Amino acid sequence: MASWIPIAETSDFSLQNLPYGIFSTDNSDPRIGVAIGEYVIDLKILAEEGVLGNLGSGGDTLKQSTLNAYAALGKDVHSRVRQTLQRLLEKDTQSGDALRDNQPLRDKAFVPLSNVRMHLPMVIGDYTDFFVGLHHAVTCAGLVKPGATIEQLCPCFYNLPIAYNGRASSVVVSETPLHRPNGQFPVDGKLVSGPCRKLDFEVEFACFIGRGNELGTSIEVDSAEDHIFGFVLMNDWSARDIQMYEATLMGPFNGKSFCTTVSPWIVTPEALESFRVAPKKTPRELPEYLVQKKEKSAYNIPIRATLGANGQRYRVADCNTNNVIFSFAQMLAHHTRGGCPLRTGDLIATGTLSGPERENAGCLLEQTRGGTEPYEMIAENSATGNVRRAYLEDNDVITFTARASGRGGNVGFGSCAGKILPAP
Amino acid sequence: MASWIPIAETSDFSLQNLPYGIFSTDNSDPRIGVAIGEYVIDLKILAEEGVLGNLGSGGDTLKQSTLNAYAALGKDVHSRVRQTLQRLLEKDTQSGDALRDNQPLRDKAFVPLSNVRMHLPMVIGDYTDFFVGLHHAVTCAGLVKPGATIEQLCPCFYNLPIAYNGRASSVVVSETPLHRPNGQFPVDGKLVSGPCRKLDFEVEFACFIGRGNELGTSIEVDSAEDHIFGFVLMNDWSARDIQMYEATLMGPFNGKSFCTTVSPWIVTPEALESFRVAPKKTPRELPEYLVQKKEKSAYNIPIRATLGANGQRYRVADCNTNNVIFSFAQMLAHHTRGGCPLRTGDLIATGTLSGPERENAGCLLEQTRGGTEPYEMIAENSATGNVRRAYLEDNDVITFTARASGRGGNVGFGSCAGKILPAP
């Protein structure tokens, strides 16, 4: 699918993608945009000019400063807007007058990506972090308790998608710097209070909820995908020393609540349709509420993590969204099984997406065997030396990128990046 | 402190109390009110009539449908409004013209409590449930693992206030019915999927945050009380079978996310000032960030739990807010120690407030030794027989009430009640 807008082969944002985000410029307040090539299209302006067709009672939702109201309209509306945008933007558009040949409107509605500042795309009511990565779970079990299997530590692991409630207030958009957190943890058997010494990242994939459900109702697994507005990359920054000390009874708390970073562009389910794949099989028979008819319920999207340090960039890990034993649909069905309400804007993440080998480890806890075996990270510019890390250092920048490539062009996520500042 | 409004000796709402809530009537949308005697005072109307004095830029906050904007103004404003209300309402008021002798305004602004419907008082961003009840922790440790101490299960228990992130979307106001949740759990060694069989309540005390803090900053323990807008009772309904099966690695999730009930009236710190008491001592030396200068940092407020069943009311337990090893100030200091932002409207709870004896157990898990020793609950009307419970049954109503009584009159919380409906 070609567009009259120039789209480089290396661009994440093909005509097949069209992800939503919230952007602002020096001259405009935060508003809804769609990325294509090197541009953001200002949907507020297109909606005001009436070129997006009749959205009925949802017409005003595209003029707001978050995506919540628009996401709540449901997938039929999103599908219609996507088709309209593709029709307007395709190379041989029949609707050239509306946008392509309307230079004054193009001047207003197209903003170079290099000129915009991105914001958190949705107001997040609750944020849930699942733990459905197969290799991450198996490896971490052995690290937490040498010789232990994940089923010994967590008998339900293969029977249901386990999760903890994350901290919505600490979710930030990519490029927001974070401070190394202070906390309590033992060092050589002695309890200390001070800056975290085992700061880590976690490579995750997450969805934003479009339509929610009411308290006391459940979402059926086979219709659960209708509740997903779209997907982002997520870095669940983790303070391993704080986390391991605090979490034995109630799960992660301060070890995870100092910052969680998401990529700014919400990629829609429609854009990812051709990258479907089955999740990893669980070895247990599932109860009916988790049996999903659609077999290809996960996605095959490679995610790369890199480290920026000393002015260089180093390869850290290659993960994939397919390393999960449950799909998002199964996660939503389980999340609401007891009647818990999901709301528009809720953020639901997979947990760490490690693959089977050390170079596929989605966090340093795994990659460095709990910090005991520092990992050699290879410089992208081979002229510079490599770098070793046990855990993250101040001023390190961790960046995730992800791109699925198909016949329709690249469907990429932009980047999910954060720089570590010293502890306050 | 006497008022010209008749206040019964059995009323929770003396002139010393003046708690805030959100109410509506058949004729009015949700709005801010203050309870006194058998009435709600409509603060929107008082603000519009200008009898509350000049609130500066905060003047419009009392005309909103939640307490968030008002709570964010900070304690100086709240203190001024409280003083103004007490001056207007005291028996020998010098400002009789403004309200007492202004019958048309009284007719508009005073609404009988029996005519109002109460709503959730604040929009809750995040909800955090701590676990700082001494007796609850000690007893539950032995139930989860016979012979185990709480420090064996949770080495940090006495060193820091532990907590898990709760589910904000499932917090409801008193009188909202709840469904018995469905879930997965083992029964006699076999995994089943269906309605919870071990449904429980938990007696808790909670605060709503007034002013928050920014990401990457911490709240100092000695100024933390300034961030508290006020207090409510809370029932952290728990599905013990679902919880015990799912929570071994990541803490409580579906076992707690089907419903959490709060009482509708937010009692202010000023109203509770004379009921201060020291928390229980922890046996460990605390790090500096948790050392609070003010010794009387907890409260002495008895909370009673009753069961409504068969048209009767039975006494279940007598707890007290003083059964904690950490104060709210210490909880907030710890919560933000790593830089986690609190926001206006966040709900922060203590965990279960059991006392030392069986009749002080704040949940059935403790009171019935994990369901193995059903508890005989005494009818308030001695003519009817008692009732026995291992766990809760469908149509049971659990109600918490709490009242501190001092020279200034009663400072009560109204009630925190919920009725259990069958599983969907």
CATH superfamily of the largest domain in chain A: Fumarylacetoacetase-like, C-terminal domain
- Structural class of chain A, please? alpha+beta
Content of β-strand of chain A: 25-35%
User: Order of strands across the widest beta sheet of chain A?
Assistant: 7-6-21-13-14-16-8
Number of domains in the coordinates of chain A? Answer: 2
Shape of chain A: globular
Distance between the termini of chain A: 50 Å
- Determine the CATH topology of the largest domain in chain A: Fumarylacetoacetate hydrolase, domain 2
CATH architecture of the largest domain in chain A: Alpha-Beta Complex
- In total, the number of strands of chain A is 25
Overall average pLDDT of chain A: 96
The helix fraction of chain A, in percent, is: 10-25%
Plain-language structure description:
Two copies of one chain form a homodimer. The model of chain A has no long low-confidence stretch (mean pLDDT 96). Chain A has two domains: 20-119, Fumarylacetoacetase, N-terminal domain (SH3 type barrels), CATH 2.30.30; 127-421, Alpha-Beta Complex (Fumarylacetoacetate hydrolase, domain 2), CATH 3.90.850. Chain A is built from nine helices and 25 strands. The first copy, chain A, is 16% helix and 30% strand. Chains A and B meet through strand 7, strand 9, strand 10 and helix 7 of A and strand 7, strand 9, strand 10 and helix 7 of B.
